[in-house]
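[User] I have long wanted to understand how a fold can be written as tokens. Those tokens are not coordinates but codes from a learned vocabulary of shapes. Could you go through the record with me and say what the backbone is doing? Thank you; the sequence and its tokens follow:
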Amino acid sequence: TDNFIKNIQKEIDSEEHSCNKVLYFFILLILFVVYFDMGVLGMILAPMLVQAAYQNWKWPLEVIKEFRNKI
């Protein structure tokens, strides 16, 4: 049952991060397209920046957590 609870917590965390990524994507999209008048380039850069920022903190954090659990 302990693994079951951990899996549920991971799913909840995953859903929260997905919602945050979508929010940041729309904020950047509006900024790039409307405020900075970047047009299609802004539509391409917004998801790239959100995804890059997410990948650069999420997976190192997961690796650190794994190492702590094994020690």
Notes: The chain is about 90% helix and 0% strand. The chain has a mean pLDDT of 80. Residues 8 and 14 are 10 Å apart (CA to CA). Helices lie at 2-35, 40-70.
